[in-house]
Structure formats: C-alpha cells, structure tokens
Amino acid sequence: MTQTTAPVAAPHGASAAGGPAIELRDITIQYERPGQEPLAIVAGYDLDLRRGGLHCLAGRSGSGKTSILRVAAGLVPPTAGTVGWEGLEITGLADDVITAKRRKHIGYLDQRGNLLPGLTALENVLLPALPDRQTRQLARRARDLLEQLGVAGRSGHYPDRLSGGERQRVAFARALLLNPAVVMADEPTASLDRASADALIRMLRTLAANGHAVLVASHDAHLIDAADSRTTLA
Ligand SMILES: Nc1ncnc2c1ncn2[C@@H]1O[C@H](COP(=O)(O)OP(=O)(O)OP(=O)(O)O)[C@@H](O)[C@H]1O
Ligand SMILES: [Mg+2]
C-alpha cells in the first residue's frame, strides 16, 4: 500500500543518542465507519527519520499523508504499530505525558495554520512558551522568526487581518519557537506563491542542515525533490 524510496535519512539504530527522532514501526491506520468495514488508510508502514534528514510524504489527496503526520506527532494513536521519539516509545503513554513531551520534541504546522483569533501574530507565536512562563525570554526569538519568515510587519495583526500565506508563516514561527528536534509541516507551501514556497523550502533545508529532523506532507514537486527521502502513498 505504501512505498518508501531510498535513501532513508540514516540507517536504523546508528545513533548513540537513543534512536531516530521519529521511528514508526509497522504502522496501520484505520478509521471506523458506522455500519461499514473500517476504512484502511495505511498498513505496515515504517519510517526512521533522524536529525539532519528531510522526509516528504507524498501522494494524492486522501492517501493518508495527514493521518501519518498526526500519528507520528502522537496526536492520535495508530490502530496498530508503534511510534518512537529518540528511543522513547510513546505508544501507550498517557495523553498528558505525550502532550508534554510533544511540546518540546515536535513543532507541528497543521494544514490550515490554525491561529487563535483573539491573539496577535506575535502572541500566537509565543503560545508554546506559556506553560513554562518563558514568553519574555522568547519574545526576541519570536520576532526574529517572524522576520526570517518575512512577516515581521504583521506582528501586531490579528489572524483575520492576515492572508492565508501569512497565517501559515506565523504558524510556522510558532512551531519553531521552542527549537524542537522535529519539525512537521502539513502542505506547508500550499497557500504560498512560488517564490515564497521556494523560500520556505530553503528554510526547511536549512532546518535539516542545522540538525532538525523535518517531516513534511506535500504534493509540491519542488518540495518532494528537495527532500532527502520520500514516501509515495497510494
Ligand atoms: N478522523 C477521521 N475519521 C474518519 N476518516 C478520516 C479521518 N481522518 C481522515 N479520514 C479519511 O482518511 C483518508 C486519508 O485522510 P488524510 O487526511 O490522511 O489524507 P491526505 O493525504 O492528507 O489528503 P489531503 O492531500 O487532501 O490533505 C481520507 O479518505 C479521509 O477522508
Ligand atoms: Mg492532508
């Protein structure tokens, strides 16, 4: 059902740091449907993604890209199989434990770039700093990220005054705020023009070069080409 093309980011088990940043083992994803057989999306899927690697999940709409991202991020458990984060198997851990670990380990940019409507762009970027009361310390970093993403001029704007592409860039800055080991992005170039999309792809490459593991879902041929490895879902 799925096909992973070489090269894989790095050989499994080679890291002394305790395993791949993201390790998916024999993942099956099914959705229950009332009165029908469960909808089988993914079966027997494996992925080892190490720091320094950019992996792209490709495939047609509805093929399961977002489903795999959500499972890899521990947002939903797989129907079967296991998810590991740097040697820690998260499958079966309590939700609040996973949530706390995810906040530090993974920056997740969802398909819609969801921002809280009552907060400005800058306040949205600083949201991940709230639980540790780090908003003051990270304010400079938040502004720098908005600057790098070309939306510094929108810092004080509320989401309803931002374009779709601007909202997505603000959400991307939010995903990067805590400098997570893993950056996941769902269709990150979908609402950007070509020049902005290519700039974002360069940024994803830079993140990988700086030692992050980057996992994206995309139909964008430029992004698929820019990845070190890819999975084409059928
Ligand atoms: N929570 C859910 N309950 C039931 N079915 C779901 C659920 N989430 C997704 N699906 C179905 O699973 C399939 C895969 O969805 P998914 O969102 O993973 O696809 P995708 O590859 O990300 O698509 P797109 O390119 O349109 O974003 C689709 O048929 C979708 O309708
Ligand atoms: Mg999707």
From TrEMBL:
Keywords: ATP-binding, Nucleotide-binding. Coiled coil: none annotated. SMART domains: AAA (SM00382). This is ATP-binding cassette domain-containing protein. It comes from Protaetiibacter intestinalis. GO terms for cellular component: plasma membrane. The lineage of its organism: Bacteria, Bacillati, Actinomycetota, Actinomycetes, Micrococcales. Residues 22-234 form the ABC transporter domain. GO terms for molecular function: ATP binding; ATP hydrolysis activity; transmembrane transporter activity. It holds the Pfam family ABC_tran.
